[in-house]
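step=encode ok
step=design start
structure_in=
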């Protein structure tokens, strides 16, 4: 039997998702991201995804969905050999920036995911991307003044320091845009 205390805790917890996922104030950004994906695909450019920890997993999931479901060329920087080689030679804080240097082409889209928005490797990747003429999309949380958000051309920010909630909201927003590009929520994935 679920206690009233547990019911209240769960109600409060899930209300945080409702505030992020279903607030129309995010609609304009979601539509802008969809339009950017369609433009990127039409121009034969690619999407580059990166993040650390759970955000790296979100980046990989996004790369696969945007490639497979949306037909947009996409890469991520989650290959262990790439991470360890670039980290060893250039420092962990520079491995994403080095990836952007080698794989990023002008007008590609660089999508960086970091709850804190202060991950040095994400910030340096955004800086390198801007210098190389990439469009930078950020997914962050915590402080609205985070460094990564200040570097983005299009920003998704959720006002929370709860890592699991912010990460799940990022995933929800990204998957929403995949389905927007496809044009429907239910479709064959084979």
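sequence_out=
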């Amino acid at each position: 039997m679920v206690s009233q205390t547990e019911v209240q805790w769960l109600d409060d917890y899930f209300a945080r998702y409702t505030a992020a996922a279903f607030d129309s104030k995010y609609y304009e950004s979601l539509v802008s991201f969809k339009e950017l994906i369609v433009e990127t695909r039409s121009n034969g450019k690619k999407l580059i995804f990166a993040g650390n920890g759970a955000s790296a997993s979100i980046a990989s999931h996004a790369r696969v969905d945007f490639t497979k479901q949306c037909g947009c060329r996409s890469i991520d920087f989650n290959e262990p050999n790439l991470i360890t080689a670039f980290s060893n030679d250039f420092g962990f804080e520079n491995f994403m920036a080095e990836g952007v240097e080698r794989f990023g082409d002008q007008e590609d889209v660089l999508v960086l995911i970091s709850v804190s928005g202060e991950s040095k490797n994400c910030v340096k990747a955004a800086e390198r991307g801007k210098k190389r003429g990439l469009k930078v999309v950020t997914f962050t949380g915590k402080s609205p003044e985070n460094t990564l958000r200040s570097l983005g051309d299009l920003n998704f920010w959720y006002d929370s320091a709860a890592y699991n909630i912010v990460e799940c909201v990022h995933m929800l927003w990204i998957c929403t845009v995949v389905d927007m590009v496809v044009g429907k929520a239910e479709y064959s994935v084979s």
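step=design ok
step=annotate ok -> The helical segments are 4-21, 27-42, 54-68, 80-90, 95-103, 120-131, 147-151, 163-182.
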